[in-house]
């Protein structure tokens, strides 16, 4: 009998976390699911851990393949999935006990093609809610805007997808792109949907900040230009302001790690149409970094001091929201 939900878990160097991940799924209050553990040619004992997990529950299927990266591994899982609905989980993260039940009920009630909730970030010392800035039913265009302006998560986790919105183009992303591939995937999915439902009051995913987690490789500016080409092609010209705003902020956030001046997209920094709040602060900070000397040191010191106040306020606000959401 076919399960309603297929849970796709790419596995690579996850031997220390995979048991915890699978156990959180087997504790779900909603039980009509299958788990696809895709061993992406992991060099450690992750493949053996996958086989061990599969021996404990008939709903778990394991596939071993050569290493191709997370995007190709998710595509492989989608082709093998049998459920009407798909969700993705990273092997070093977990699901709250009612995550699948909450997402499935909301998806059935709303008839949306994508249903999403909020996350928690879990470290060794605390849990912090990462809230959504969107709520209710959104159109495809509104979803694209939300993705580009950082109002919702660009990753595939914490979401329930209707299976029929996936086609061959969704994961057709060059292998040398190791950053922002999740955003490209979601932008392409947005072209195939009628509506998306967002529920910030539901906590449906636990992101674990692990010291051993794999980090993104630093990409050359030519590859970043390829990323921006994919984003622009996927979002469409009608979202030009949002695309330029996203690219500008990427330049700001990675200014120490990329040769952004040699990008063909560098002119977006000259525009005054960035839609992100506080963009002007980044812009001023960047100019001072390029100028160097006294102004550089002064702005960096002021920026660090401001960040301490912002982080303190954000921490207090998120704690209050987290308690409120847990009582709901």
Give a description of the structure:
By secondary structure, the chain is α/β, with parallel strands linked by helices. The chain is built from 10 helices and 9 strands. The protein has helices at 18-26, 46-54, 70-80, 99-110, 140-148, 181-190, 221-235, 240-253, 279-291, 293-327, and strands at residues 5-11, 33-40, 60-65, 85-88, 114-122, 127-130, 136-138, 159-162, 196-208. Strands 1, 2, 3, 4, 5, 6, 7, 8 and 9 form a 9-stranded mixed β-sheet that branches. Strand 1 (5-11), helix 1 (18-26) and strand 2 (33-40) form a beta-alpha-beta unit. Helix 5 (140-148) packs antiparallel against helix 6, helix 6 (181-190) runs parallel beside helix 7 (221-235) and helix 9 runs antiparallel to helix 10. The longest helix has 35 residues, at 293-327. The two termini are 34 Å apart. The model has no long low-confidence stretch (mean pLDDT 86).
Please tag this protein with its features.
328 residues; alpha/beta; 9 strands; 42% helix; 18% strand
- How would you name the oligomeric state of the polypeptide chains in this document? single chain
Distance from N terminus to C terminus (CA atoms, Å) equals 34 Å
Number of strands: 9
Note the run of SSEs as H and E: EHEHEHEHEEEHEHEHHHH
Count helical runs. 10
**Estimated radius of gyration:** 21 Å
Shape: globular
Structural class: alpha/beta
């Amino acid at each position: 009998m076919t399960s309603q939900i297929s849970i796709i878990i790419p596995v690579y160097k996850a031997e220390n976390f995979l048991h915890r991940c699978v156990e959180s799924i087997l504790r779900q209050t909603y039980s009509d699911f299958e788990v696809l553990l895709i061993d992406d040619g992991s060099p450690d004992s992750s493949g053996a851990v996958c086989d061990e997990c599969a021996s404990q529950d008939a709903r778990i299927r394991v596939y071993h393949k050569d290493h191709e990266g997370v995007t190709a591994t998710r595509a492989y899982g989608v082709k093998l999935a049998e459920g009407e609905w798909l969700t993705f989980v990273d092997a070093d993260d977990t699901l709250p006990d009612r995550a699948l039940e909450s997402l499935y009920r909301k998806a059935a009630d709303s008839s949306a093609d994508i249903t999403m909730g909020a996350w928690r970030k879990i470290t060794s010392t605390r849990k912090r809610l990462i809230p959504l800035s969107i709520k209710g039913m959104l159109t495809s265009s509104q979803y694209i805007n939300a993705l580009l302006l950082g109002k919702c998560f660009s990753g595939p986790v914490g979401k329930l997808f209707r299976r029929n919105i996936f086609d061959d183009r969704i994961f057709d992303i060059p292998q040398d792109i190791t950053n922002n591939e999740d955003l490209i995937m979601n932008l392409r999915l947005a072209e195939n949907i009628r509506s998306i439902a967002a529920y910030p009051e539901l906590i449906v995913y636990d992101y674990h900040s692990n010291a051993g987690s794999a980090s993104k490789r630093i990409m050359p500016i030519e590859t970043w230009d390829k990323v921006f080409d994919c984003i622009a092609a996927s979002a469409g010209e009608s979202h030009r302001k949002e695309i330029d705003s996203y690219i500008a902020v990427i330049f700001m956030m990675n200014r120490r790690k990329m040769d952004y001046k040699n990008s063909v997209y560098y002119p977006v920094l000259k525009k005054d149409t960035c839609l992100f709040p506080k963009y002007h602060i980044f812009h001023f900070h960047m100019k001072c970094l390029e100028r160097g000397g006294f102004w550089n040191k002064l702005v960096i010191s002021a920026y660090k001091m401001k960040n301490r106040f912002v982080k303190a306020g954000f921490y207090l606000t998120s704690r209050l929201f987290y308690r409120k959401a847990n009582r709901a």
